[in-house]
């Protein structure tokens, strides 16, 4: 098996992450203003987006191909992306994913930047989500 690489996706290759999400019928999106990160062997097997907000970033779009789950791909991808990122990092997740993010150093967030607080309030009208932050 080829070595797993975790790296930022160059702007010219941004459509590759969108294609990866679509190929797996994932609702995730490669947002235009976000820095995109991927896990890849010979092809992309995972991705995430880091969108600038306040004095930090909002982590969205974390998705790993089903065939690669349980192998540490998501944890490795998050670790490498955050090591190259300054400031706090916030995310929203479903309650069953809380323990995963806590193992990665995230804690439940009680104070969010206003744009994220507003977004979370809207999302919570139709979903049960928890906000996390890593300082």
From TrEMBL:
It holds the Pfam family Acetyltransf_7. InterPro entries: Acyl_CoA_acyltransferase (IPR016181), GNAT_dom (IPR000182). Gene3D superfamilies: 3.40.630.30. It comes from the Bacteria. Residues 1-125 form the N-acetyltransferase domain. This is GNAT family N-acetyltransferase. The lineage of its organism: Bacteria, Pseudomonadati, Pseudomonadota, Gammaproteobacteria, Pseudomonadales.
